[in-house]
Amino acid sequence: DLTEEKIAKLDAIGMRWDTLGDAGWEKNFAAAKKYFDAHGNLDVPAKYVEGGIALGPWLGMLRTWERAGAHRKYLTPERKRQLEAIGMVWDRLDRLWERNYGAAVGYYERWGNLDVPSDYVDAEGIRLGAWISRMRRLRHGRCRGTPLTAEQTARLDAIGMVWKKRTETAWERGFLAAEVYAKENRNLLVPSSYVSEDGVKLGAWIQRQRVYYKKNSLAADRVRRLEAIGMVWDTHSWMRRLTLVRQYCREHGTANIPQNCVMEGCWVGKWLAVQRRLRAEGKLTGEQDALLSELEAETT
Hints:
By secondary structure, this protein is mostly helical. It has helices spanning 4-12, 20-39, 55-68, 77-84, 92-111, 128-139, 150-157, 166-185, 202-214, 220-228, 235-252, 268-280, 286-298. The protein is rod-shaped.
């Protein structure tokens, strides 16, 4: 409806005939093209700004609009094609997941498991250890983020994913070795240097559990499981008294120790009487019961 004269007057003072949205698109697309030419992709950091143009936030906004099906007049099919021609990935999280999963497959093919150290970084610079840990936390709802799909979970299972933490897996391996030792030896008095047949440093592992117990940092469930196979937490106190009782028995040829007998500051006679009473009440551990019975058998 404008006359040629009015159009000329508006042109003379810098009139832009395209919309503000069109102008903004051209400016931002030019910045995206420049980034692509320099880096070969549009994997732009979320907060990336250059030349006053917030390219990272702009691309993030477009991805959000695409997922929501919003602003179709701005994000037209033609503009989408323009972006895809310079490497636009609409679902960036899926792309990153696939890249990391590919690294996990490579690790599995090389080592036969996904027991990845938390600080492991592969040759491509992918922090695979951290990613595996995050997948575990997502599976158990321990961190923010999009939950794993059933398909993603199944794909990780197929390459040996262990959903427990590496520390939990290591503890279970130690407990299994302790269980075997307890069955074979009827106690858990494991020498500190002892290593099981499958390579578990059981002596050191048992000592660590006692340290955690003293610091009250051992989970109640683990305490119960260890006690069920004969764990003695304060070995120094109990074993020291048993050693003194053995010394008395060797010297006197009997386990009938007077109640007032004191050795190295310990009332060994009273202590032995208490242990016999606790055994009769079923309150000694299997390990303690076996050691006490062995002692008395030696002196009868």
